[in-house]
Amino acid sequence: MSFSVNVAQPGPTFPKMENLVESKKQAYDLYGRPDFIRLWWTRDGYPKRFLEVDRLLNQEPQSIYALRHSWIYLDQEVEVIFDSGKTFHEVPLTDKVRMLCRYGDPEDVKSLTSGEGTPEETWHYYSLGLILRFRGDTIISKQTHAPMGQFIKR
After folding, report:
1. Which of 11, 39, 63, 104 would be 4's cystine partner, CB 3.0–4.6 Å?
2. Is 50 helix (H, G, I), strand (E, B) or coil?
3. pLDDT of 77 over the 60 cut
4. DSSP string covering 90-142, please?
């Protein structure tokens, strides 16, 4: 996976069981070690771009410690969202989150509206030669082209 400010792979010693709140212990007992940890920079969990996160952290460096996060399990196709220290709920893994785990953050995002008035997004991975088009959180097309070199993910 390429660099991402939205998802991170936990290190080999994650988690330290003695530091986990009850809901995370329950999720660990149910699913095991997560494949990824998703950082929720917004209330609805919408992915942020590197420069937006960089600006936020420059203004409020301690804000990263208060971020809501969830655990992602690719094989089970589930995301575990922690509601509190005592409860969590599970949601099916969306295509957008799956693509963040696979490819990292897109290098460019374009928002548009389809002919039916439905919001759509196009994620460009120039360095990989990949264009993904989403309607909501669902992928509706995937195109490939010749990779165009490394880009800073802004």
Report:
1. 104
2. helix
3. yes
4. EEEPPHHHHHHHHH-S-SEEEEEE-TTS-EEEEEEETTTTEEEEEETTEEEEE
